[in-house]
Amino acid sequence: MNSSVMKRSMYLFVLPALIFYLLFWIFPILKIFQYSVSDYNGFVQKFNYIGMDNYISLFKEGVLVNSIKNTLIYTAVFVLFGNIFSLCLAFILNMNIAGKGVYRSVAYIPTLFSAIVVGFIWSYVYMPDSGLISSVLKAIGIDGSDFNPLGVGTTALYAIVFVEIWKNIGTNTIIFLAGLQTIPNELIEAGKIDGCSSWKLTRYVRIPLLAASITINVTLSVVNGLKAFDYPFIMTNGGPGTATNTLIFKIFKYAYNEQLFGKASALGVVAFTIIIIITGILVMNLRKKEVSL
Amino acid sequence: MKRILAVIIALALALSLLSGCGGSQKNEDSIATGGTNNQEDTQKPVEDVKPVTLTMLVSGNKSPDGKDIELDILPKMIKEKFSNINLEATKLPDEQYNTSIKTKLAAGEGPDIFLVWPKTGVCGAIDLSKAGYLMDISGYNIWNNFAKGAVEDMSYDGKVRAVAKGLDLLGIYYNKALFQKAGITEEPKDWTSFLGVCQKLKDAGITPIVTGDKDPWYLQFALYQIAANVVYPDDMDFDVKLQAGEESLTNPKWVKAIEMFNELYAKGYVVKNSLGIGSAQACSMFIDGKAAMIFDGTWDYNTLMAKGEAEFERGFMATPANESGKATYASASTAAGYAVNASTKNADAVKQVFEYWFDVNSSLFAAYRDASSSISVVKGVPLENELFKGVYDIYQNGKSVYFCNQMWPGAVATDMETKLQEMIGGQKTTPQDVTKAMDAKFKELWKN
């Protein structure tokens, strides 16, 4: 009797948090579904319901295909190269070299800056003609006059993913480094006694034991990649043309630059679905692997 | 040892909590007493006058010297004149402003005074009036002094909705020293001679034009000037017909305007790799003397007149996109203006402030006039920057067209910019494709 009263009264304590959660999190999400079938422009409260028109026009205009494609390329490149780079860096920083504390701090520095600062600095680095890279090219005698990574449709997306990788390398490296430090020395020594080369030690001992760190880093990178917004916004404004329009950037652009809240909501619903599916598949797969370990 | 440490930490925490409480109490007291004191002060001279706080949200960059007209001078001078009125002004960069003002209005948290742009478009006076956010301020005793055009551009349904800051011109800032170096003695008068000037500069090894095409909105500066000479001179009602569904943006005139725009890129007159250069970088290239011309407007006067690596005299002209023998049209438009929130609780105080602010004889108006970067639309105020005289004269003679996007829903210009970037980036987008995209967006969004 006493305990059931306890339990019931406990629900009351959950209530305040639950109300906030419903009001500021669940309700707005449901609202997005409502707006996605309307022509709401964000400030006139009178709007009409227009059925699936928003979704249809997203598809017809090619916005959907374009922004999904850009987001997926962004995510794939970011996950793959971001993790390979930081894994290599972690191995190097884990070696017994003089001044490794300094190197470790240096590798972490980019993470400390805000995205806006990094984006701004890198747009000057990439600037054609008088930017950092083209100046260096000029100084070493290479003609860099055609170097314009942000201004060319085919390279702009990769140029901004590179900045994202550069910015996040510190975080990924730290996680890998922490993983590396947990590998028991005995295992390495046992391997050495059995005659393992250092490559084999890495391939068959270190990397499998890093599985947990890899799971964390891959998941974080996938989530970050699918949410990509900062660098397209700061560095290219989604351009040139639509070359760097990612899902989230396009949602922002529709809602705030073009006053098309309805359409932005429709794209939001699509993005929501895609992210749920990808994350779902990823989590299930990684879980399986962790069990098998 | 641990115990002692724990006790010390606990004590320190308790003390800081206590002192925190004490501090805030004191603060509250002082605010409260401060408040009552103020009330007494203000109530002394005029009886039954309640203190009023007006909020104002504007866009732009804050003046670096701390003498910002909207943030510093206006609140101070209004306080001097009306001791009961406090003006709280906030300034946001343009993009943030556009986002935040609409959100605030939609949430019913709008400021008393805020900026709107003429006609339709993003934050346009007409759009916001239709949504019921702008108060009818036709009754204010200030309109006799204002130029008719500026008042009309801010009106909806025959009622005035905002006080225009002034007039903005688009044009080309050019480097007279580089012109001279290339042997150019006078401003070009038509499109052929303009292309000739560009060719001469190019032949002399000078970059003729620098643009900041990485910022999509920048692309409008050149195109609207060309359109002013190609689309509108024979058909000033083009956009009215467009809105009525009798015209289309795929009209050959628009295609021609975009072809002319593209010609500048195809012939190599615009700086190489312009899509990698932002507007700020473009401006600094101009003031450093690295290019002879830049498309820009009156609002960037201070930036473009600032001293860079090179010292040279500047000129300002309208883009002569006209055929030879015809007059050059300028792109000129009413600047943004101050509007009053329809649901303000302080309508009387706002009226008092506006009537003082825009009273030609008031000291506030004098200060405002001196600080303003736009050309004044108040009668009797002379042109401040001599540089703009040539283009201003064109405007005065009635040979001017407003900025094209003012008659379109906001997204038309955004789509146009995207397509223009694709076109100059060599992605096989033709001028026809650009106009098709513009027209499709217009038809999708235009509702009467």
Provide structural commentary.
Chain A: The chain crosses the membrane at residues 12-33, 72-93, 105-127, 147-166, 207-226, 264-286. Chain A: It holds the Pfam family BPD_transp_1. Chain A: Residues 68-282 form the ABC transmembrane type-1 domain. Chain A: It comes from Anaerobacterium chartisolvens. The complex is a heterodimer of chains A (293) and B (448). Chain A has 293 residues and is an all-alpha fold. Helix content of chain A is 75%, strand content 0%. Chain A has a single domain (63-292), classed as MetI-like fold (Orthogonal Bundle), CATH 1.10.3720. In chain A, helix 3 (63-93) runs antiparallel to helix 10 and helix 7 crosses helix 11. By secondary structure, chain B is an alpha/beta fold. Chain B has helices at residues 2-43, 69-81, 94-106, 125-130, 148-153, 176-181, 191-203, 220-230, 238-244, 252-266, 279-287, 301-305, 347-357, 363-371, 389-396, 410-424, 431-445, and strands at residues 52-59, 85-92, 113-116, 155-156, 159-160, 162-164, 167-175, 207-210, 291-297, 314-317, 330-334, 337-340, 400-401. In chain B, the strands form 3 sheets. In chain B, strands 7, 8, 9, 10, 11 and 13 form a 6-stranded mixed beta sheet that branches. In chain B, strand 1, helix 2 (69-81) and strand 2 form a beta-alpha-beta unit. Chain B is globular, with a radius of gyration of 26 Å. The relative contact order of chain B is 0.15. Chain A binds chain B through residues 42-45, 57, 123-124, 126-130, 145-146, 148-153, 236-242, 253, 256-260, and chain B through 95, 98-99, 102-103, 105-106, 122, 128, 130-131, 133, 213-216, 272-278, 281, 285, 409-411, 414, 418-419, 421-422, 425, 427, 429, 444-445.
Task: Give the secondary structure arrangement, pairings included.
The complex is a heterodimer of chains A (293) and B (448).
Chain A: H1 2-35, H2 53-60, H3 63-93, H4 100-112, H5 115-126, H6 132-139, H7 156-181, H8 185-193, H9 198-209, H10 211-226, H11 230-236, H12 247-257, H13 261-292
Helix pairs in contact in A: 1-13, 3-7, 3-10, 4-7, 5-11, 7-10, 7-11, 8-9, 10-13, 12-13
Chain B: H1 2-43, E1 52-59, H2 69-81, E2 85-92, H3 94-106, E3 113-116, H4 125-130, H5 148-153, E4 155-156, E5 159-160, E6 162-164, E7 167-175, H6 176-181, H7 191-203, E8 207-210, H8 220-230, H9 238-244, H10 252-266, H11 279-287, E9 291-297, H12 301-305, E10 314-317, E11 330-334, E12 337-340, H13 347-357, H14 363-371, H15 389-396, E13 400-401, H16 410-424, H17 431-445
Parallel strand pairs in B: 1-2, 1-3, 8-9, 11-13
Antiparallel strand pairs in B: 3-12, 4-5, 6-12, 7-9, 7-10, 7-11
Helix pairs in contact in B: 2-14, 8-10, 10-17, 16-17
Transmembrane segments (chain A): 12-33, 72-93, 105-127, 147-166, 207-226, 264-286
Membrane topology (chain A): Multi-pass membrane protein
Family (chain A): Belongs to the binding-protein-dependent transport system permease family.
